[in-house]
Design goal:
The chain is an alpha/beta fold. Helix content is about 45%, strand content about 15%. It has 19 helices and 15 strands. Helix 2 (about 40-50) runs antiparallel to helix 3 (about 60-65), helix 4 (about 70-85) crosses helix 5 and helix 6 runs parallel beside helix 13.
Length: about 450
């Protein structure tokens, strides 16, 4: 089912495109699933261990509370007291301090990182921001809130782990007592949160109404924003109009609700991707926009020749068509990897036309070298790449982000010109972070 709350959704998308830097993402456990467990799954794991130790409460009663999304923090307290601090620490590390690769990261989290937000606040303990961020973010915990504020004021990318990091157990906030200590005794964290709430617009993703963290944070929002006309947004898996209305009235936030079609919550991905390209209140106007339609090979080559010639200034290039593919060879004018990437993207942006005979765009980048008798030395091939025309058009139409497009491109070390039968090898060509978001 599509995202509901259409007015709030379109309002947020339009505001975000106008000024993305005024927004801060607040990330809950839902965005880390299924790589990491939900509150419900984690508490059941704790309960299984606690009942084998010194649990003084009825297991079935606690299970009922967990299933109903009630008393999460109090149940966590009871389990920790029963199992002891050492076993508690062991379970947390077994659960969250695990090895994983970028490909294991949930798609919704990757979509968030595609947006390259300046600041992310998260209640999660895991290391997804470190892996997905590829070193682009300063990771700060509640123990060093002033550092987060300083980095953010200097326009550095920051992830603030408000409830701690699994690599530093002394920063972990999980039980009621730990939570009260953070909220009541950590003045620097409170100051940072209050400053952000009064100057930035927060977008909450990965939370549910049963999440024990969201009530405390939103109560803080209500007290800080009293009399300040700043509306924050909460993406929620909820269809009850009564609950949505009550939630908005209680906390003064705007709910963007959805009813998930399945357990993957693909609607979260749809939501985050929408922030990466413009959404119109009148989508039918987009479909009536006049667009170039190319129907034959001669027209295709002439069109691309004209567009590339106006885009790549001071560089020779050649174009030919074969079996549904356009082959473009050119000498990059840039010298650094980042500059070459920008030239590749500038060409792909030219694929903003309709063409039923074009399936794939292939580029060959040739080095700028002095003349030589040896053809491989005079025209050394730097790189070859292939991308589907449909993906290139989506990028030119701003339907996918730069980072998403880059993952769809196939890169190769091509054969030399003197040995065209040489096998091409698939390679990785990591994106330079300096051009993400362009």
């Amino acid at each position: 089912m599509p995202i509901n709350s259409e007015n709030a959704f379109l309002e947020l998308v339009n505001e975000y495109h106008q000024n993305p830097e005024k927004f801060v993402f607040f990330v809950g456990a839902g965005l880390s699933q299924p790589l990491f467990p939900s509150w419900k799954m984690l508490l059941k794991k704790f309960l299984n261990c606690a009942k084998e130790r010194d649990l003084t409460h009825d297991e079935n009663e606690l299970l009922k509370y967990i299933e109903n999304g009630e008393n999460y923090l109090d149940i966590a307290d009871a389990c920790v007291r029963a199992m002891g601090s050492t076993r508690y620490r062991d379970i947390m590390e077994e659960t969250f301090d695990i090895d994983f690769s970028e490909s294991d990261i949930p798609e919704s989290y990757r979509c968030l990182m595609d947006l390259s937000p300046k600041m992310i606040i998260t209640t999660n303990y895991d290391r997804i921001p470190e892996i997905a961020g590829k070193g682009r973010y300063r990771i700060i915990t509640n123990k060093n809130a002033p550092e987060a504020a300083r980095f953010f004021s200097h326009k550095k990318n920051v992830v603030f782990k408000i409830h701690g990091d699994i690599t530093d157990h002394s920063s972990i906030v999980f039980t009621t007592s730990e939570y009260q200590k953070l909220i009541n005794n950590n003045a620097k964290t409170k100051s940072l949160l209050s400053s952000l709430l009064s100057t930035k617009v927060l977008i909450f993703v990965g939370f549910s109404l049963s999440d024990p963290h969201i009530d405390v944070v939103l109560n803080n929002i209500k007290s800080v924003n009293d009399g300040i006309p700043i509306s924050h947004y909460v993406l929620l898996n909820e269809i009850s109009t009564f609950k949505i209305s009550s939630f908005e009235s209680r906390y003064g936030v705007k709910i963007i609700s959805y009813d998930p079609e399945d357990s993957s919550h693909s609607e979260v991905v749809t939501f985050l991707r929408a922030l990466n390209h413009k959404t119109s209140k009148e989508p039918e106007q987009i479909s009536t926009k006049k667009e170039t339609k190319i129907i034959d090979v001669d027209g295709l080559i002439k069109h691309i020749d004209k567009e590339v010639g106006e885009t790549i200034i001071g560089s020779g290039f050649s174009i030919f068509y074969q079996n549904g593919d356009i082959y473009l060879s050119f000498t990059p004018t840039g010298e650094t990897k980042s500059e070459i990437q920008k030239e590749i993207l500038s060409i792909i942006r030219l694929m903003n036309f309709e063409c039923d005979i074009l399936d794939k765009l292939s580029m060959v980048l040739i080095a700028k070298t002095p003349p030589s008798i040896e053809i491989d030395n005079s025209q050394a091939i730097l790189l070859k790449l292939k991308v589907k025309f449909s993906d290139a058009k989506k990028y030119s139409d701003k339907q996918i982000s730069t980072s998403t497009l880059w993952r769809l491109i196939e890169f190769y070390t091509p054969a030399g010109l003197s040995n065209l039968l040489q096998t091409e090898d698939r390679i990785e060509f990591p994106m330079s972070t300096g051009i993400i978001g362009e």
